[in-house]
Amino acid sequence: MAVIKPFKGMRFDTEKAGELKTLCCPPYDIISEEQRKEFIAQNEYNVIRLELPREGEDVYARAGEVLDLWRSQGVLIYEDRPAIYVYEMEFNAYNKRRSVKGIIARVKVEPFSKGVILPHEFTLSKAKTDRFNLMKATNCNFSQIYALYMDSEHTTLNTIDELSTGDAPYEFTDDDRITHRLWVITDEDVIEKLCADFEDRKLYIADGHHRYETALNYRDYCRENGISKEGDAQDYQMMYLVDMEHPGLVVFPTHRMVRDLPNFDKNIVLDGCKEYFETEKFDSVGNMNTLLSKKYKEGKKAFAFYVGKGEWYMLTLKDIGVMSSVLPDLSAASQQLDVSVLHSLILEKTMGIDKENMANQINLTYTKFFEEAIVKVDKGEFQCSFILNPTRVTEIRDVAAEGEKMPQKSTYFYPKMITGMVMNDIGVD
């Protein structure tokens, strides 16, 4: 099953590079160009120059040059001994202060067909090409893949908690009030125990599907070009591993906004929905999330269909049994996902937005922000939006276990891991 091992992490020497807060950044795929420039203006050594390169004619080659320079200057240094890292994020969600804690280690990548590491979401090829070119130029992971594991006795989590009882040697709070903490574990006996914990486990990718598929492609590329052979460091990638039942796990929904649909008419949509959904009209969004949450707790499949100026409709599925005939080739786990219901019965069947259209985002835009899904319809930038409840972690597990994938943008694990606290130089054992 899953094979994990320690590594000599590459980290910033803050005495030379500056405060850790000014050196780290959010994941590359949620950073705007304006934000990227702001990070560099604050500190020229910010990891964004490696993780999201935009300098020179060949941005990837330039990232490799910057990496070499920082290593030669001692801006980036390595752990003296192989380590596993305990990483904690403390944050606000649903009006409560929470925290999630796991370990960062090297993990042996395996094809999905082996059933050791399982995906839950479809990916886009453009993002994978970008990450692949960066790996070829740097032979590094600057950010982690986020994966979950099942541990009914929570043995690993108990060990992790014991290892992180004191103050973290590396800690800062970012501008989103997320506190990041890192403990470096080099005790060989402890590391051996942690590695042994995973020998009978599967891993479920929570976030980082593009990076994982890129890691597989990069491993194969290195083997095919004589750069590495089976068992070498290119077989392993840096991952963040979290107990699937961790009380701090938070998954936010990703809402759908519809634009530029020919002959859009809310009444036609509502008429089309009545075959499968109970509909109820509201004139204020003030109670929308509360009502949706109530449906979620009752186990019902429901969406808010927002059409602007406070007007919205609660759409509640009458009978989940209809999904077995709509998606006969998929498992019950996939059939019963909220996004499957929305996509197949409303977006496709009623509004004519097919899977290819969704994948290419021709008439569909995704957002994790409730306010954006409301305001942009009010401004006329979008014709309507669908507000969703979050996907349950158990649903993610069940779909992955069936060897299936959810539609794109089905989940949004919060918070996103920070980039730059510890990095994986694949060329260093």
Labels describing this entry:
429 residues, alpha+beta, Conserved hypothetical protein from pyrococcus furiosus pfu- 392566-001, domain 2, nine-stranded mixed β-sheet, six-stranded antiparallel β-sheet, 16 helices, 21 strands, 33% helix, globular
Describe this structure in words.
This protein has helices spanning about 15, 35-40, 50, 60-75, 125-140, 155-165, 190-195, 210-225, 265-275, 290-295, 325, 330-335, 340-350, 355-360, 370-380, 395-400; strands at about 5, 10, 75-80, 85-95, 95-110, 115-120, 140, 145-150, 170-175, 180-185, 205, 235-245, 250, 255-260, 275-280, 300-310, 310-315, 365, 385, 410-415, 425. It has about 425 residues and is of the alpha+beta class. The chain folds into two domains: about 5-250 and about 415-425, no CATH class; about 255-390, Conserved hypothetical protein from pyrococcus furiosus pfu- 392566-001, domain 2. Strands 1, 4, 5, 6, 8, 9, 10, 11 and 12 form a nine-stranded mixed beta sheet that branches. It is globular. The protein starts with a strand and ends with a strand. The relative contact order is 0.18.
